[in-house]
Amino acid sequence: MSQTACAKSIGVANSTWFLWQKLALEKKSPYAKWWAECQRAEADLQANCLRSVKLAMDHGDSKAAMFLLQTKFASEGFGKSSQVNVNAKTESQNLNLSVNADVTNDERRAAIIRILEKLEPKSNTFENNMLE
């Protein structure tokens, strides 16, 4: 659990927890021993979690394997990453359509459909990219 949750579970304020941590890092007793035990418990938890993921992997759970690769070995190229083009340009265009007032709604719709059929996207859509 988080340090805040740990503090709450033992009935101390966050400020007390972080004071103890500060004193531990200054190697003051008994806080240094307390903090070492906290670190050991956290390492034990991590080891147990990794054993569980490894066991799931050994039984064919590819999601567990991917999770381990993405977390433990993220810096080696297995991490989730996303790229955002911050230089992307947006363009908006207005399309005005003038239709005689004496035409029927069906004729207006037909004229609009003819114009829309002539429009082409400037770039491939996501679906088109996925099909390639």
Descriptors:
132 residues; mainly alpha
Write the layout of secondary structure elements.
Blueprint: H1 3-9, H2 14-25, H3 31-58, H4 62-72, H5 105-118, H6 126-131
What does this structure look like?
The structure is a single chain. The chain is mostly helical. It has helices at residues 3-9, 14-25, 31-58, 62-72, 105-118, 126-131. The chain is built from 6 helices and no strands. Helix 2 packs across helix 3 and helix 3 (31-58) runs antiparallel to helix 4. The longest helix has 28 residues, at 31-58. The relative contact order is 0.04. The mean pLDDT is 79.
Q: Could you write a compact summary of the structure shown?
A:
The chain has 6 helices and no strands.
Low-confidence stretches: none
How are helices and strands ordered from N to C? HHHHHH
Mean pLDDT: 79
What is the tally of helical segments?
6
Oligomer: single chain
Q: Helix/strand-derived class?
A: mainly alpha
The description of the largest β-sheet is: none
Strand tally is 0
**Beta-strand percent range:** under 5%
Helicity level:
55-70%
Q: Rough shape?
A: elongated
Instruction: Please report the distance between the alpha carbons of the first and last residues.
Output: 45 Å
Radius of gyration: 31 Å
